[in-house]
Design goal:
By secondary structure, the protein is α+β, with helices and mostly antiparallel strands. It is built from six helices and 15 strands. The chain has two domains: 82 residues, Phosphorylase Kinase, domain 1, CATH 3.30.200; 149 residues, D-amino Acid Aminotransferase, Chain A, domain 1, CATH 3.30.470.20. The strands form four sheets. The protein has a five-stranded antiparallel beta sheet with strand order 1-2-3-7-6. A five-stranded antiparallel beta sheet has the order 11-10-9-12-15. The protein has a three-stranded antiparallel beta sheet with strand order 8-13-14, with helices on one face. It binds uridine-5'-diphosphate.
Length: 240
């Protein structure tokens, strides 16, 4: 059995532990929630369990669709066994509908559907406020090669197709989401991190009710219930 050992890293929502296998780590999901570069902080009771549950389920579905991920197995309610990666410090955001920072930057109202998905890259640097980067910046600063950026973009598009279908069959609009990728010991790029109501915008397809972290960011109330509803739908059977 793979046992959790020393702590490798503690982030805002997760702790990563080393294991007795140097190629494996354990992600432990906390209830801590932050927004606006850590300026807003609270705990959302049961969030860690929900985010681990949705992530394990969706990584399994993506693997079946041929996407390479770091997911090995779910160890417990809050623990996921993962392949060890060196995370590329980019947030890869894919959007199907205008919302959040894109609405602010473009002046286009939230809820306007995009004609085709947009993929964006942000530099994972809290001290800089996670600025958006172009592909030229990413290559110039040697964050990733041009080939790797191409791989990230294609992976994001494929993941978007798989997730959009999965969500729409369960009465959810996948508005946008953030992915993180990393390199394994051989340099192969795998999907890492998590896929959860913390990292996706999910709206009820009919009512457009928000079932994601915007309930926390915007003080909309019913946070725990909305996360639970999203998780039950994501991990449940197709409705149509
Ligand atoms: N996102 C995330 N972590 C971040 C920033 C964004 O998971 O540090 C997700 C967010 O939940 C949304 C998508 O990425 O699903 C796009 O977020 P956006 O750029 O609109 O920023 P926000 O409005 O959340 O600040």
């Amino acid at each position: 059995m793979t046992q959790q050992q020393a702590q490798l890293y503690e982030g805002k929502a997760k702790i990563v532990y080393v294991t007795d296998d140097p190629t494996r780590v354990i992600q432990y999901f906390k209830d801590d929630a932050t927004a606006f570069d850590g300026k807003k902080k609270d705990t959302i009771s049961g969030k860690g369990v929900i985010n681990n549950r949705t992530s394990c389920h969706l990584f399994g579905i993506l693997e079946q669709a041929g996407v390479k991920t770091h997911f090995v197995e779910k160890l417990s309610e809050r623990e996921m066994l993962c392949r060890k990666l060196k995370i590329i410090p980019l947030e890869v955001v894919t959007r199907n509908v205008v919302a959040g920072s894109l609405s602010k930057r473009s002046g286009v109202a939230e809820g306007v559907a995009l004609e085709r998905p947009i993929v964006e890259f942000y530099y994972k640097r809290d001290d800089l406020g996670d600025p958006m980067l172009t592909e030229d910046h990413i290559a110039a600063f040697r964050i990733a090669t041009e080939d790797e950026v191409h791989t990230l973009r294609e992976a994001a598009r494929k993941i978007n197709q798989v997730l959009c279908k999965h969500m729409s069959e369960r009465g959810l609009d996948l508005v946008d989401f953030k992915l993180e990728f990393g390199r394994d010991a051989t340099g192969q790029i795998l999907l890492g991190d998590e896929i959860s109501p913390d990292t996706c915008r999910l709206w009820d397809s009919k009512t457009k009710e928000k079932l994601d972290k915007d309930r926390f960011r915007r003080d909309l109330g019913r946070i725990e219930e909305s996360y639970q509803d999203a998780a039950d739908r994501i991990c449940g059977e197709a409705r149509q």
